[in-house]
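Q: My hope is that you can spare some time for a protein that puzzles me. Underneath my words sits a plain record pairing an amino acid chain with its backbone structure tokens. Those tokens are not coordinates but codes from a learned vocabulary of shapes. Thank you; the sequence and its tokens follow:
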Amino acid sequence: MSPPVQGEARRLRWRERLEGSCEDWLRSHFRRVRLWVILEGLAGFMLRVAFYPAAWIVLLCTAALAASPEVPESPTEAVRATVGKVTRILEDPELKDLAKLMPRRRILEEVIATRFDYAEMSKRALAAYWVPLTASERTEFVEVFKRFLSDRYAEKIEGYGRQEVVYLLERIEGSYAEVRSELRSEKTTMPLDYRLLLKEGRWYAYDLIVDGISLVKNYRSQFQQVIRESSYQELVKKLRERSLSGETKTTP
């Protein structure tokens, strides 16, 4: 074949690849570096993005739903659930024996502790006297006040066993809430309101308003009096001995 014909043949073969198959041309020129595999994957990705946008929308919506926090319980539901547990304990025939008084008291304390924010109550009850306390002193006070309140609250609710609890309303302002209720019996009706704080999707009580009297404010007044007349250490001692305001020790 003459040189001009060979040159034309070369040009034809080159044109043949361009006009015939882009894939053949890419494979022949990028085989050594395996760039074809990269280009093929990139092209497939672009096609999926272009032709399946709905898949991306579904994926983003699913991720958003998975990341969103669960709807927190309502304040009334929180109080109702705890009061229900307490009522079942008080009505348990196996725990009504006088010999079971203290074991029942401990069970009540455990249930109450799951719904009371004793650290918040301690801070509010001590008020300005909370600030200078060290971390270890705060931990100690919260534990002492917790045991003291658990005893006092358990003693009071043991007398509420046959009273009906009626939930009147709830108010929510940000992470704070108030649940108003009444304890009703054949002879009396006593208002009992719960003030709660939302933490990590759960409502915790930090104050009780019994017949219009705030538990936190009541103890704040007593705490300040003991500290002013004696010392903070004396207050802790009284709480340990359950001897605040003339109370006698009720734990074994």
In short: The radius of gyration is 36 Å. The longest strand covers residues 189-199. The mean pLDDT is 75. Strands lie at 164-173, 176-184, 189-199, 202-210, 213-214.
